[in-house]
Amino acid sequence: MPPVIKRILFFLVYTNLFIAACAMALAYETFVLLQLPDSINWYLLLLFLCTLFVYSLHYFVKTKKAASDTRLQWCRRNKRPLVLTIITSALLIAGGVIVHFEAIFKIDDRFNYSNIVWFFLVPLIALGYSHPLTPWNKKGLRQTGWFKLLSLSLTWSFTTTLLPVLMLLPDQWDGFSKPQLIILFLHRFFFIASLSVLFNVNDYEEDKADGVKTIAVLLGPERTLRQGKWLTLLLNLAMAILLLYTFQLRHPSSYIAVLIPAGLLYYFYDRFTPAKEEAFFVLRHDGLMIVKALLLIFALLFFSI
Asked: In Å, how far are 182, 199, 237, 255 from 234, measured between CA atoms?
Protein backbone atom coordinates (compact mmCIF):
# COMPACT_ATOMS: atom_id res chain seq x y z
CA MET A 1 0.00 0.00 0.00
CA PRO A 2 1.38 3.47 -0.90
CA PRO A 3 2.54 5.37 2.23
CA VAL A 4 0.27 8.34 1.41
CA ILE A 5 -2.85 6.13 1.32
CA LYS A 6 -1.76 4.45 4.54
CA ARG A 7 -1.33 7.80 6.31
CA ILE A 8 -4.77 8.94 5.13
CA LEU A 9 -6.39 5.74 6.43
CA PHE A 10 -4.59 6.06 9.75
CA PHE A 11 -5.80 9.66 10.03
CA LEU A 12 -9.44 8.75 9.29
CA VAL A 13 -9.44 5.90 11.81
CA TYR A 14 -7.34 7.40 14.58
CA THR A 15 -9.10 10.79 14.55
CA ASN A 16 -12.34 8.79 14.84
CA LEU A 17 -13.86 10.27 11.69
CA PHE A 18 -14.36 6.73 10.42
CA ILE A 19 -16.26 5.43 13.46
CA ALA A 20 -18.41 8.59 13.41
CA ALA A 21 -19.24 7.86 9.77
CA CYS A 22 -20.22 4.31 10.79
CA ALA A 23 -22.72 5.66 13.33
CA MET A 24 -24.21 8.09 10.82
CA ALA A 25 -24.51 5.33 8.19
CA LEU A 26 -26.42 3.04 10.56
CA ALA A 27 -28.72 5.89 11.58
CA TYR A 28 -29.37 6.78 7.94
CA GLU A 29 -30.28 3.14 7.31
CA THR A 30 -32.97 3.61 9.98
CA PHE A 31 -34.11 6.86 8.35
CA VAL A 32 -34.56 5.13 4.99
CA LEU A 33 -36.17 1.97 6.40
CA LEU A 34 -38.68 3.90 8.55
CA GLN A 35 -39.02 6.72 5.99
CA LEU A 36 -38.35 9.35 8.63
CA PRO A 37 -39.07 12.95 7.58
CA ASP A 38 -36.38 15.36 6.39
CA SER A 39 -37.27 17.66 9.29
CA ILE A 40 -35.05 15.61 11.63
CA ASN A 41 -32.05 15.23 9.32
CA TRP A 42 -30.18 17.39 11.83
CA TYR A 43 -30.03 14.26 14.01
CA LEU A 44 -27.61 12.58 11.60
CA LEU A 45 -25.11 15.43 11.89
CA LEU A 46 -25.41 15.60 15.68
CA LEU A 47 -24.91 11.84 15.97
CA PHE A 48 -21.80 12.07 13.79
CA LEU A 49 -20.38 14.90 15.93
CA CYS A 50 -21.27 13.27 19.26
CA THR A 51 -19.64 9.99 18.23
CA LEU A 52 -16.57 11.90 17.08
CA PHE A 53 -16.38 13.76 20.40
CA VAL A 54 -16.91 10.74 22.67
CA TYR A 55 -14.41 8.48 20.91
CA SER A 56 -11.79 11.23 20.56
CA LEU A 57 -12.08 12.07 24.26
CA HIS A 58 -11.80 8.39 25.12
CA TYR A 59 -8.52 7.94 23.26
CA PHE A 60 -7.13 11.27 24.43
CA VAL A 61 -7.62 10.21 28.05
CA LYS A 62 -6.24 6.77 27.25
CA THR A 63 -2.95 8.28 25.98
CA LYS A 64 -2.16 9.22 29.59
CA LYS A 65 -2.22 5.56 30.66
CA ALA A 66 0.61 3.05 30.48
CA ALA A 67 -1.04 0.88 27.83
CA SER A 68 0.48 1.11 24.38
CA ASP A 69 -0.51 -0.10 20.93
CA THR A 70 -0.25 1.26 17.41
CA ARG A 71 -3.30 3.47 17.90
CA LEU A 72 -2.12 4.99 21.18
CA GLN A 73 1.34 5.52 19.73
CA TRP A 74 -0.24 7.49 16.87
CA CYS A 75 -2.42 9.46 19.29
CA ARG A 76 0.56 10.38 21.47
CA ARG A 77 2.49 11.57 18.43
CA ASN A 78 -0.50 13.50 17.10
CA LYS A 79 -2.11 15.01 20.19
CA ARG A 80 -2.74 18.33 18.45
CA PRO A 81 -5.16 17.00 15.80
CA LEU A 82 -6.83 14.85 18.46
CA VAL A 83 -7.36 17.85 20.75
CA LEU A 84 -8.51 19.93 17.78
CA THR A 85 -11.05 17.22 16.93
CA ILE A 86 -12.40 17.23 20.49
CA ILE A 87 -12.73 21.02 20.65
CA THR A 88 -14.16 21.40 17.14
CA SER A 89 -16.73 18.62 17.57
CA ALA A 90 -17.81 20.03 20.98
CA LEU A 91 -18.30 23.51 19.50
CA LEU A 92 -20.21 22.16 16.52
CA ILE A 93 -22.44 20.06 18.80
CA ALA A 94 -23.23 23.17 20.86
CA GLY A 95 -23.90 25.14 17.69
CA GLY A 96 -26.12 22.40 16.26
CA VAL A 97 -28.19 22.19 19.45
CA ILE A 98 -28.62 25.99 19.51
CA VAL A 99 -29.62 26.15 15.83
CA HIS A 100 -32.11 23.28 16.18
CA PHE A 101 -33.18 24.11 19.76
CA GLU A 102 -36.85 24.51 18.85
CA ALA A 103 -36.97 21.21 16.92
CA ILE A 104 -35.20 19.29 19.69
CA PHE A 105 -36.63 20.69 22.90
CA LYS A 106 -39.97 22.30 22.00
CA ILE A 107 -43.35 20.88 21.00
CA ASP A 108 -46.33 23.20 20.52
CA ASP A 109 -44.43 26.05 22.24
CA ARG A 110 -43.87 23.85 25.31
CA PHE A 111 -40.71 22.13 26.47
CA ASN A 112 -40.44 18.51 25.36
CA TYR A 113 -39.17 17.10 28.64
CA SER A 114 -38.67 13.56 27.33
CA ASN A 115 -36.21 14.87 24.71
CA ILE A 116 -34.42 16.86 27.39
CA VAL A 117 -34.00 13.67 29.44
CA TRP A 118 -32.72 11.68 26.43
CA PHE A 119 -30.27 14.41 25.42
CA PHE A 120 -28.68 14.31 28.88
CA LEU A 121 -29.01 10.59 29.65
CA VAL A 122 -27.60 9.13 26.41
CA PRO A 123 -24.40 11.28 26.36
CA LEU A 124 -23.96 10.49 30.06
CA ILE A 125 -24.06 6.74 29.40
CA ALA A 126 -21.78 7.14 26.36
CA LEU A 127 -19.22 9.04 28.42
CA GLY A 128 -19.67 6.56 31.27
CA TYR A 129 -18.44 3.79 28.95
CA SER A 130 -14.88 5.11 29.31
CA HIS A 131 -14.99 7.52 32.23
CA PRO A 132 -16.11 7.13 35.89
CA LEU A 133 -19.53 8.67 36.48
CA THR A 134 -19.17 8.94 40.26
CA PRO A 135 -16.23 9.97 42.50
CA TRP A 136 -16.46 6.75 44.52
CA ASN A 137 -16.23 4.47 41.49
CA LYS A 138 -13.05 4.98 39.48
CA LYS A 139 -14.01 2.61 36.67
CA GLY A 140 -15.92 3.25 33.47
CA LEU A 141 -18.54 0.77 32.25
CA ARG A 142 -16.04 -0.79 29.83
CA GLN A 143 -13.94 -1.88 32.83
CA THR A 144 -16.84 -3.71 34.45
CA GLY A 145 -17.01 -7.10 32.79
CA TRP A 146 -20.20 -7.67 30.83
CA PHE A 147 -21.04 -3.95 30.89
CA LYS A 148 -18.33 -3.39 28.28
CA LEU A 149 -20.30 -5.41 25.73
CA LEU A 150 -23.78 -4.57 26.98
CA SER A 151 -23.40 -0.80 27.36
CA LEU A 152 -21.70 -0.43 23.98
CA SER A 153 -24.29 -2.53 22.14
CA LEU A 154 -27.25 -0.86 23.83
CA THR A 155 -25.92 2.66 23.27
CA TRP A 156 -25.13 2.11 19.59
CA SER A 157 -28.43 0.32 18.94
CA PHE A 158 -30.53 2.89 20.78
CA THR A 159 -28.92 5.96 19.22
CA THR A 160 -29.09 4.57 15.68
CA THR A 161 -32.65 3.18 15.82
CA LEU A 162 -34.94 4.40 18.62
CA LEU A 163 -33.56 7.82 19.54
CA PRO A 164 -34.21 9.46 16.14
CA VAL A 165 -37.78 8.15 16.33
CA LEU A 166 -38.20 9.70 19.78
CA MET A 167 -37.28 13.05 18.22
CA LEU A 168 -40.42 12.93 16.04
CA LEU A 169 -43.62 14.80 16.76
CA PRO A 170 -46.59 12.61 17.82
CA ASP A 171 -48.30 13.01 14.42
CA GLN A 172 -45.17 11.71 12.64
CA TRP A 173 -45.42 8.19 14.13
CA ASP A 174 -47.87 6.90 11.52
CA GLY A 175 -45.42 5.34 9.05
CA PHE A 176 -44.31 2.41 11.20
CA SER A 177 -45.47 0.16 14.03
CA LYS A 178 -44.06 -0.65 17.46
CA PRO A 179 -43.27 -4.28 16.47
CA GLN A 180 -41.20 -2.90 13.58
CA LEU A 181 -39.26 -0.65 15.97
CA ILE A 182 -38.62 -3.53 18.37
CA ILE A 183 -37.39 -5.86 15.62
CA LEU A 184 -35.20 -3.12 14.13
CA PHE A 185 -33.66 -2.43 17.54
CA LEU A 186 -32.99 -6.11 18.24
CA HIS A 187 -31.59 -6.64 14.75
CA ARG A 188 -29.16 -3.76 15.31
CA PHE A 189 -28.34 -4.85 18.88
CA PHE A 190 -27.28 -8.39 17.95
CA PHE A 191 -25.28 -7.07 14.99
CA ILE A 192 -23.36 -4.57 17.16
CA ALA A 193 -22.91 -7.15 19.94
CA SER A 194 -21.46 -9.63 17.44
CA LEU A 195 -18.91 -7.06 16.28
CA SER A 196 -18.14 -6.10 19.88
CA VAL A 197 -17.19 -9.68 20.76
CA LEU A 198 -14.58 -9.62 17.98
CA PHE A 199 -13.07 -6.50 19.52
CA ASN A 200 -13.20 -8.19 22.94
CA VAL A 201 -11.14 -11.04 21.50
CA ASN A 202 -8.70 -8.58 19.99
CA ASP A 203 -8.43 -6.78 23.38
CA TYR A 204 -8.01 -10.06 25.26
CA GLU A 205 -4.52 -9.40 26.63
CA GLU A 206 -5.32 -5.82 27.68
CA ASP A 207 -8.62 -6.77 29.33
CA LYS A 208 -7.08 -9.75 31.10
CA ALA A 209 -4.26 -7.57 32.47
CA ASP A 210 -6.82 -4.96 33.65
CA GLY A 211 -9.04 -7.59 35.25
CA VAL A 212 -11.97 -6.87 32.92
CA LYS A 213 -14.01 -10.07 32.68
CA THR A 214 -15.27 -9.93 29.09
CA ILE A 215 -16.63 -12.98 27.28
CA ALA A 216 -13.22 -13.50 25.68
CA VAL A 217 -11.48 -13.39 29.07
CA LEU A 218 -13.97 -15.76 30.68
CA LEU A 219 -14.12 -18.32 27.86
CA GLY A 220 -10.75 -17.75 26.22
CA PRO A 221 -10.30 -16.36 22.68
CA GLU A 222 -10.43 -19.70 20.85
CA ARG A 223 -13.60 -20.94 22.53
CA THR A 224 -15.24 -17.52 22.12
CA LEU A 225 -14.57 -17.57 18.38
CA ARG A 226 -15.45 -21.24 17.93
CA GLN A 227 -18.82 -21.01 19.69
CA GLY A 228 -19.45 -17.39 18.81
CA LYS A 229 -19.40 -17.89 15.05
CA TRP A 230 -22.38 -20.24 15.19
CA LEU A 231 -24.30 -18.26 17.81
CA THR A 232 -23.84 -14.95 15.99
CA LEU A 233 -24.75 -16.56 12.67
CA LEU A 234 -27.98 -18.01 14.07
CA LEU A 235 -28.96 -14.82 15.92
CA ASN A 236 -28.23 -12.50 13.01
CA LEU A 237 -29.94 -14.77 10.49
CA ALA A 238 -33.01 -15.02 12.73
CA MET A 239 -33.16 -11.26 13.17
CA ALA A 240 -32.62 -10.73 9.44
CA ILE A 241 -35.59 -12.99 8.64
CA LEU A 242 -37.75 -11.21 11.24
CA LEU A 243 -36.74 -7.84 9.79
CA LEU A 244 -37.70 -8.97 6.27
CA TYR A 245 -41.03 -10.32 7.50
CA THR A 246 -41.92 -7.39 9.79
CA PHE A 247 -41.16 -4.74 7.18
CA GLN A 248 -42.54 -6.89 4.33
CA LEU A 249 -39.34 -6.63 2.32
CA ARG A 250 -39.95 -9.03 -0.55
CA HIS A 251 -37.50 -7.95 -3.22
CA PRO A 252 -34.46 -10.26 -3.64
CA SER A 253 -32.15 -7.27 -3.15
CA SER A 254 -33.48 -6.84 0.39
CA TYR A 255 -32.77 -10.51 1.16
CA ILE A 256 -29.23 -10.08 -0.13
CA ALA A 257 -28.78 -6.85 1.83
CA VAL A 258 -29.63 -8.36 5.22
CA LEU A 259 -28.08 -11.79 4.71
CA ILE A 260 -24.62 -10.71 3.47
CA PRO A 261 -23.68 -8.99 6.79
CA ALA A 262 -24.64 -12.14 8.73
CA GLY A 263 -22.43 -14.22 6.44
CA LEU A 264 -19.53 -11.79 6.75
CA LEU A 265 -19.78 -11.87 10.53
CA TYR A 266 -19.46 -15.65 10.43
CA TYR A 267 -16.44 -15.29 8.14
CA PHE A 268 -14.77 -12.77 10.51
CA TYR A 269 -15.20 -15.17 13.42
CA ASP A 270 -14.03 -18.18 11.44
CA ARG A 271 -10.99 -16.40 9.94
CA PHE A 272 -10.19 -14.14 12.87
CA THR A 273 -6.74 -12.56 12.78
CA PRO A 274 -5.44 -10.46 15.71
CA ALA A 275 -4.61 -6.88 14.82
CA LYS A 276 -0.98 -6.10 14.07
CA GLU A 277 -2.08 -2.63 13.03
CA GLU A 278 -5.31 -1.51 14.70
CA ALA A 279 -6.33 0.81 11.86
CA PHE A 280 -6.76 -2.11 9.46
CA PHE A 281 -8.63 -4.15 12.08
CA VAL A 282 -11.06 -1.24 12.61
CA LEU A 283 -11.50 -0.67 8.88
CA ARG A 284 -12.22 -4.36 8.27
CA HIS A 285 -14.59 -4.97 11.18
CA ASP A 286 -16.23 -1.62 11.98
CA GLY A 287 -16.39 -1.07 8.23
CA LEU A 288 -19.01 -3.82 8.14
CA MET A 289 -21.40 -1.28 9.69
CA ILE A 290 -21.09 0.93 6.63
CA VAL A 291 -21.33 -2.06 4.27
CA LYS A 292 -24.46 -3.28 6.07
CA ALA A 293 -26.10 0.14 5.96
CA LEU A 294 -25.27 0.81 2.31
CA LEU A 295 -26.54 -2.59 1.18
CA LEU A 296 -29.99 -2.07 2.70
CA ILE A 297 -30.15 1.62 1.75
CA PHE A 298 -29.34 0.72 -1.85
CA ALA A 299 -31.95 -2.07 -1.86
CA LEU A 300 -34.64 0.22 -0.45
CA LEU A 301 -33.93 3.26 -2.59
CA PHE A 302 -33.40 1.55 -5.94
CA PHE A 303 -35.75 -1.41 -5.73
CA SER A 304 -39.34 -1.88 -4.67
CA ILE A 305 -39.93 -2.54 -0.99
From this structure: 18, 20, 5, 16
